[in-house]
């Protein structure tokens, strides 16, 4: 398993390094060193995120060789290929390339690492990649090192990367310094295993850990086997050191992620009818956070009675398929409460097709299920509100055609939902095609619409009907509008009442104007907020209709200034208002007229 990091990538002198990441069937470049950039002529930003085939493939590229190398890596074996490629400017070049991979906790490849050198285009061979250099680079890339301990001269030889892994000075003898890095127990185990291998030829693998200079803990293993001469006699022990820090850190992170996500692991042994739970799984069901076992019978007994038959049947069905089975049921926590869990399981079969083991994950979805049920209740209430308020819910596509209409449409629009599906919105509004296109364009620009009032034709009614429409855009994963969803309510009664009110207001204004009267509104401080028309007496003065708003009444009636507050309080206290004869003075020529003024207070719900 490779532990090549970003620093390693950019420090590989003379070797081009390219790292790609696998996501489903897609492969994209995630890192590249300067050597590879020099070889291909691209800039880093031109490659990151791109498929290598789109950047380097030429008509002469043998894609099968690259695919075979990738397949070999997926099986846990480093591989090699030669290929003819093209540079950014189109000129051809050839490489000799070694491929390794990064693996996740499930032992699946998620990254490929390509280490390459440029070779003669007409003679693709490893003529510039020497054996010693290749071994050194391979050790660095795989996080490994080699060593040999001679039986005859008791000499301990190590490769260059051995010093790197253990942070040792290559100019100082290895054995004592290595003993300082490892614990006494690990050192004794390594020495004893080496001596035993020299005597018996028994292979060994000793795990180690130590704290590096950067403060991080390193993990790995030292393995060894006997080296024999042509007569079969053991002459030395040769071995490999593997730096497994990245895998150990990945396993730790994996455990932390599972813990944070409230996920535990389970394994069912069918032969013994026992379920083994990880520490996280045990914690989720309220037990001590340690690996534990529980019988199948005890597990079933803790499943909620209302869910037990369904869960058991889904469990039995899953034993006849190698597909992942998802089950959702309530399980009795150690505290006695019921918790919703989601169980995802996969069954392993023997060569006769009989199930031997079931592997599963246990996820606490209690909050999610209860929240979803609350949403379902709220949605039901919302539908009730829509029905009670004489409204309906709808969806239209990007071209303005109905794709969904709730059942309440029959009450509001007179049409059954099936009669509207596929119809354009101007089927109801009777908009012209041009106006409909402009309306759609505005929707796409604004993204939403609020309290839009629209006159429609209701099926089975000869009268005009009005609806209020509110909605918002529906976006896909690329943030592109694919349609709109919203609600509409029948506001015909309110609209007709408003139209009648406006008509009556106009008639009143006409009557007042004919009688040389004047309608106005005041705020709570006695300042003008509205004036229906102009009194000719004040034309060409600072009290003309366009300059009156915000000014107090006594600018027109100076004598009222001292009694202004008293007058306002009298109006507020009188349920029918008060009528007063007030002298109005024009500031233009100091002329005056008398006017009969009737004022009544408008009160809010609190009587203020």
From TrEMBL:
In terms of Pfam families, this protein maps to: PAS_3, PAS_9
Q: What class of enzyme is it?
A: transferase
**Reaction(s) the record says it catalyses:** ATP + protein L-histidine = ADP + protein N-phospho-L-histidine
| Enzyme Commission no | 2.7.13.3
Question: What are the entry keywords?
Answer: Kinase, Phosphoprotein, Transferase
Record GO terms (molecular function) = protein histidine kinase activity
User: PAS domain location, by residue?
Assistant: 378-423
The name of this protein is histidine kinase
- Protein species of origin: hydrothermal vent metagenome
């Amino acid at each position: 398993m490779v532990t090549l990091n970003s620093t390693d990538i950019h420090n590989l002198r003379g070797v081009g390094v390219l790292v790609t990441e696998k996501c489903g069937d897609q492969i994209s470049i995630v890192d590249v060193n300067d050597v590879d950039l020099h070889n291909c002529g691209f800039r880093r930003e031109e490659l990151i995120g791109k498929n290598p085939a789109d950047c380097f493939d030429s008509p002469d590229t043998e894609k099968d060789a690259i695919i075979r190398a990738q397949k070999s890596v997926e099986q846990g074996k480093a591989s090699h290929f030669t290929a003819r490629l093209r540079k950014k400017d189109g000129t051809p070049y050839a490489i000799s390339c070694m491929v390794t991979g990064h693996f996740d906790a499930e032992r699946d490849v998620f990254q490929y690492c390509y280490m390459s050198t440029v070779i003669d285009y007409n003679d693709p061979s490893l003529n510039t990649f020497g054996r010693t250099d290749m071994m050194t680079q391979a050790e660095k890339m795989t996080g490994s090192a080699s060593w040999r301990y001679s039986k005859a001269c008791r000499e301990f030889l190590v490769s260059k990367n051995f010093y790197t892994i253990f942070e040792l000075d290559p100019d100082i003898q290895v054995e004592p310094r290595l003993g300082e890095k490892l614990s006494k127990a690990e050192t004794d185990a390594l020495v004893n295993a080496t001596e035993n291998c020299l005597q018996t030829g028994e292979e060994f693998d000793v795990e180690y850990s130590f704290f590096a200079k950067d403060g991080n803990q390193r993990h790995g293993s030292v393995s060894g086997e006997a080296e024999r001469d042509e007569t079969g006699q053991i002459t030395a022990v040769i071995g490999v050191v593997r730096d497994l820090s990245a895998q150990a850190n990945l396993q730790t992170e994996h455990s932390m992620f599972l813990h944070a996500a409230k996920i535990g692991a389970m394994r069912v042994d069918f032969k013994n009818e026992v379920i083994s739970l990880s520490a996280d799984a045990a914690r989720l069901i309220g037990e001590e956070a340690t690996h534990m076992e529980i019988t199948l019978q005890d597990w079933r007994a803790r499943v909620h009675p209302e869910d037990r038959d369904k869960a058991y049947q889904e469990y039995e069905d899953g034993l006849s398929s190698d597909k992942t089975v998802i089950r959702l049921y309530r399980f009795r926590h150690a505290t006695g409460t019921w918790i919703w869990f989601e169980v995802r399981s996969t069954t392993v079969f023997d060569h006769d097709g009989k199930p031997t083991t079931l592997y599963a994950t246990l996820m606490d979805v209690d909050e999610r299920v209860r929240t979803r049920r609350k949403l379902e209740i709220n949605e039901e209430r919302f539908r009730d509100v829509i029905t009670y308020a004489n409204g309906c819910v709808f969806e239209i596509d990007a071209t303005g055609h109905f794709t969904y209409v709730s059942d309440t449409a029959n009450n509001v629009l007179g049409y059954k939902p099936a009669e509207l599906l596929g119809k354009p919105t101007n089927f109801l509004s009777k908009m012209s095609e041009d106006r409909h296109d402009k309306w759609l364009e505005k929707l796409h620009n604004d993204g939403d619409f609020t309290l839009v009032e629209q006159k429609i034709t209701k099926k089975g009614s000869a009268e005009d009907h009005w609806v209020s429409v509110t909605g918002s855009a529906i976006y896909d994963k690329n943030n592109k509008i694919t349609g709109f969803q919203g609600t509409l309510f029948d506001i015909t009664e309110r609209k007709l009442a408003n139209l009648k009110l406006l008509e009556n207001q106009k008639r009143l204004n006409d009557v007042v104007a004919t009688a040389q009267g004047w309608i106005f509104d005041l705020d709570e401080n006695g300042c003008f907020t509205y004036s229906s028309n102009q009194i000719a007496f004040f034309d060409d003065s600072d009290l003309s209709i366009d300059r009156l708003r915000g000014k107090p009444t006594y600018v027109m009636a100076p004598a009222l200034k001292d009694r202004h507050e008293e007058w306002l309080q009298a109006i507020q206290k009188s349920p029918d208002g008060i009528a007063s004869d007030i002298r109005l003075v024009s500031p233009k020529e100091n002329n005056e007229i008398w006017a009969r003024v009737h004022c009544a207070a408008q009160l809010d719900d609190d009587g203020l």
